[in-house]
Design a protein that fits this description.
alpha/beta; TIM Barrel; Immunoglobulin-like; 17 strands; binds ligand H79
Amino acid sequence: MKKFVLIIICYLLLNTSFSQTNYQPSAENLKSRQDFQDRKFGMFIHWGIYSLLGDGEWVMNVQKIPYDKYKRIANAFYPHDFNAKEWVKIAKTAGMKYITITSRHHDGFSMFDTKATDYDVIDATPYKKDPLKDLAIACKEEGLKLNFYYSLLDWGRKDYGFGKKIVNGKPEDTDWDSYINFMKAQLTELLTNYGDVVAGIWFDGDWERKDANWHYDEIYGLIHRLRPDVMIGNNHHTDLKPGEDYQLFEKDLPGNNSHGWGTGGVSNEVPLETCETINSSWGFNINDKGYKSVKTIIQYIIKAAGHNTNFLLNVGPQADGKIQQEFADTLKKVGEWLQLNGESIYGTRGNVIATQDWGTVTAKEKKLFIHILKAPSQDFILLPRETQKVASVQSYSSKQSLKWKQQPEGIFIYLDGITFSTIDEIIEVTLK
Ligand code: H79
C-alpha cells in the first residue's frame, strides 16, 4: 500500500510540477495573459555586439565571419550613450506598454550578467555593466513589463554544434545535454535576477533544427516553477506546444502565413502576438532606409487588435546605445494617435467579426469600436451577426450620432456626413 501511495505521489509530482504535457496554467499565469492582452502594443529591441557592424543581427552568418574573429568585436562594445530611461521614455511616448529585448541572439553573445559563460557583456566587453538590469529598473519605474528574447540557436558554441547532423534528437558528436543545461542556467538567471517586472520569455531559433529534442518539458517546467506568472512564447512557426502561454507570429497577422514559415494553426486558447520591424531590419542596419510610415504602423496596431493580437514593433538601437532619431520621431507620432484613440485599442479584444475590406472591429465591455481604415464603396457598413441590441452609434472623433438599423443579418451603420481620416475613422457602437 505504501509503495502504491508513493508511486501515485511521484506520478502526481511529475505531472503537476515538472511535466508540461498536461500543463495547467496557474491562476497568476492566467492573470498575466489578460494583462498582456490589455497592453496590446510593445517595443521589440534587437541589440547586441552585432550592432557595431551595422548590418543586422545575422551579420556573422550572412558575411560568413568565423566565430573566433566575430568574438573580437566584443572588445569594442562600449555603449556610452545607452540610457535605459531614455529607451523606456521613447517606448512610453509611443504608447507601448512592454518591452521585449534580446538577452542573447543567434550569435550566442549574452547581453546580461551571466555566470554560465564568459561570452557576455560583463566579462567580454570594456563596458562591464548589465544593460538589462538598468532596463528592468526603468521599466519597473514606468509601469512597463519586460520580456526576454532568448535564442535557442547558437552559431558558436561547440555543444550546440551548428551545422551538425541531428541523430536521435541530438547533434552528432556534441554534448547536447551540456547545451540544454547551459540554457537552463541562463534562464534561471534571467528569471531570478531582474525582479517581477519580467513577464515573459520569447524563444527563437527552434526552426533551425526541427528534429532536435529541445527538452521543452524541462525548460518550460523550470520557468513555470521559478515564476508561474511568466508567459512562455516560442517562435517555432508550428502549433502551440504544451507549456506555452502565448503564440508568436513573425511579420504576419495570425493565420496569414504570407512568408510560408507557419506550418501550424492559430491557437484560440492563448494570447497572440505578432512582431514587425520599424524599417526592414531587426538589429541595427546602417544602410536600411525602409522606414515604415506612421500610418502603416498605426494600421498594423489596429489590424492586430482586430485579430485579437498584440503588436510588437522592433527597433534596433545603435551600438552607442542610441535609438536613432528617425525611429523616435515615428514612434512619437504613433503615440500621439494612441493618446487620442487608445481607448479603442488598449484593453479591447478582437475577432468580433471577420476582417472586412474597410477594416476591423475591437470590443470592450459594452462598446464596439469600428475601425474604418479604407473608405467603403457604399455609404454604409454592415456588421454581420451582431445579436446584442444597440443603444447608440456615434463618430468617435466628433461624437456626432449616426443613423443605424438592426436586422437579422446585422447592424447597418450609415456614414452620411463622415469625413474619413486617412489613418482610421472610428465609429463607436454602444450596446445595451
Ligand atoms: O530575431 C529576428 C530574426 O533574427 C529571427 N527572428 C526575428 C524575430 C529570424 N531568424 N530567421 N528569420 C528570422 C527568418 C530567416 C531569415 C533568413 Fe536571412 C533568410 C536567414 C537567412 C536568409 C534575413 C536575410 C536574415 C539573414 C538574411
